[in-house]
Design brief:
The structure is a homodimer of 144-residue chains. By secondary structure, chain A is mainly beta. Chain A has helices at residues 49-61, 123-129; strands spanning 8-17, 21-27, 36-37, 40-42, 64-74, 85-96, 105-111. The first copy, chain A, contains two helices and seven strands; from the N terminus they run ββββαβββα. In chain A, strand 2 and strand 3 (36-37) form a beta hairpin.
Chain lengths: 144, 144
């Protein structure tokens, strides 16, 4: 029996440090090229989400991270202009490396203050839900 | 730019009630035909995960549920013999309906005791992680 088509699956990382703040990358490619975003990307087939998260962070920021926990799953149909993309978002802490951009990231940096930063996708909503920005609400916008 | 192939995405529901226990369905189709499992299924493109969860529960059990929270994301590559499938698992409570099997479910029932029930996929591991079965561990088995 063929398996039905399902949304694309991504992971994103909220990497925090009490002294340095939070890591964002500046997107090299569309959509939202030039905008700041959480490090992340598509999950490979045969790759666990936690492994995908650590790999994407390594590729885009040069940092080695450990997963602290799952922050939520964001799945609203219109959250990615390329097509329906569901993201599992993990809270991470740094266990090695220093910030250096790579791969899809034109830049990577610690932000102690997110005021005035225009974020890609629904990443402002994700950060708000975790209390890093004002105006937090529950993940997908479709919850009862 | 073409989007990379990612794992298939499903949702599963842990529906609990303090008096009646937990709802399981008996699978009509392979894999694990005849085995008990959490209600759930594939997420449709353009459908939020929470909506997919409520829809699958309605189709398989006749129950209307509300989402209480996200229990976790299970993503180990070998958890579904049909191919890599990642499941977002939601804790749910019943807000309407009575248990009546439908769709992919040959049977649906409340279980006050899961002792001796052989579960499909990694659903025993999922229930253990939530404390419904002994031997709980973190989601994907790949966490640091």
């Amino acid at each position: 029996m063929p398996r039905p088509a399902t949304p694309a699956l991504t992971v994103d990382a909220v990497i925090t440090d009490p002294r340095r703040g939070l890591v964002l990358i500046r997107r090299r490619n569309p959509p939202f090229a030039g905008r700041w975003a959480l490090p992340g990307g598509f999950v490979d087939v045969r790759e666990a989400c936690e492994d995908a998260c650590c790999r994407e962070v390594r590729e885009e920021t040069g940092l080695e991270v450990a997963i602290c926990g799952l922050l939520g799953v964001w799945s609203r149909a219109d959250r990615d202009p390329r097509g329906h993309t569901v993201s599992a978002v993990y809270l991470c802490r740094v266990v090695g490396g220093t910030v250096a951009s790579g791969d899809d990231a034109a830049e990577a940096a610690w932000f102690a203050d997110l005021g005035g930063v225009s974020l890609a996708f629904d990443h402002a909503e994700i950060l708000a839900s975790a209390g890093f920005l004002p105006g937090g609400q529950a993940p997908s916008g479709s919850r009862p």
